[in-house]
Specification:
It is a single chain. With about 160 residues, the protein is mainly alpha-helical. It has helices at about 1-35, 40-70, 95-105, 120-125; strands at about 85-90, 110, 160-165. It is rod-shaped. Mean pLDDT is about 75; it is low at about 150-155.
Length: about 160
């Protein structure tokens, strides 16, 4: 989708550039026709200029729409995340692998902070995970985030969780 949208934008801008060139050229031709030929071809030239002006408007609109569509992230609309959280693979290899595995299994990378209910979500997430001395029981997505992204209010802070290599 993103590649197609940027291609649409590029083609639209080229068409707009061609239409604007044609518009300017016909404006010059109209002036030349009126001065040197008595305006005998003006009606056809005005029609060509008007058509190129309409084409310019349409092509530019398509280009702007393609450019805007190319900025929408994959997976739907909505604002981009407010913060990007990077987990160092070198510094936290187990946590990084855990996050990568969870995201590979379909868990979201874009999350929404929702502190209410975090204690219950943590208890539910770790219920069947045994305690191992000297090890953390981490969960993904973190319990401080909303688990049902579809029902989240859009006014809450969103984050993107990435693993940095």
């Amino acid at each position: 989708m993103i590649i197609a949208a940027s291609s649409i934008a590029r083609v639209g801008f080229y068409a707009a550039a061609g239409a604007s060139t044609l518009y300017i050229a016909t404006s010059i031709a109209i002036s030349v026709d009126e001065v040197y030929f008595g305006g005998s071809h003006v009606e056809n030239l005005y029609a060509l200029r008007d058509g190129s002006g309409q084409l310019l408007y349409i092509a530019y609109s398509v280009a702007e729409g393609g450019r805007a569509a190319a900025l929408i992230p994959r997976g739907g609309g909505g604002p981009p995340p407010a913060r990007v959280i990077q987990i160092s693979n070198a510094r936290y290899p187990e946590s990084a692998k855990h996050i990568q595995d969870a995201q590979a299994q379909g868990k979201p990378a874009i999350l929404t902070i929702d502190r209410s209910g975090r204690n219950q979500r943590r208890a539910d997430a770790l219920r069947n995970t045994p305690v191992v001395p000297g090890r953390d029981r981490d969960e993904y997505p973190p319990t401080v985030t909303a688990q049902d992204q579809a029902s989240v209010q859009s006014t809450r802070l969103t984050i993107a969780v990435l693993v940095r290599h």
